[in-house]
Amino acid sequence: MKRKMRWILDIFMTMALLFLMGYHFWGEMAHEWAGAVMFVLFIAHHILNGSWYKSLARGKYTPVRILMLTVNMLTLVAMLILMYSGIAISRYMFAFLPAQGGMAAARRLHLLGSYWGFLLMSLHLGLHWGMIWNRLGLKPGKQNRYICFTGSLLIAVYGACVFIKRDFLDYMFLKNEFVFLDYTESKILFYLDYVALMGLCIFITYYGSKLLKK
Questions:
Q1: Would you say 175 and 106 are in contact if contact means Cβ atoms under 8 Å apart?
Q2: Confidence (pTM)
Q3: From CA 10, how far away is CA 32, in angstroms rounded?
Q4: For residues 205 and 127, is the Cβ–Cβ distance under 8 A?
Q5: Most-buried pick from 101, 107, 170, 205 (CB within 10 A)?
């Protein structure tokens, strides 16, 4: 039952993550509601995976385990930044809270958290990609593995092009503090781009962890 709840939770978190990146399509209020849902899902995710924290002091730290710990901790930091900054700049859901100032700093933090958070959560997803395939009952044979790898590589290449085209590096390091939002672009193409970018991150950590194991 607990495993099934984690599985459902992860699906909804992935959907919420993609929805949040399409802020300009749905408006500020919908974005805040989705952010609040993501906040609740994130807390539930950590409660259901509380045993992971208890195991940190036990066992040997292999390269794969170090990679997983690093990605998980950075993801946690990015999400906490997003939660704080999202509440600070809220104009609807948390508007009842007294204004504390520092709005410009909170907006910068939200920009950082958004772009780093998307990539880190996607990398985190890649670390569990093998488990996801097993849950779906998908265990490709040797020949099909080559086909899967080729398909994954093509998606990763497309994702790398998206990373460059959408100026992720500029936003990740605040070289540009004003995100260009094209309100006329196709929603389908936008989300294809972001799914491909997610695919790139999954490819890096899934196959990277396999190399580390060897």
A1: no
A2: 0.90
A3: 20
A4: yes
A5: 205
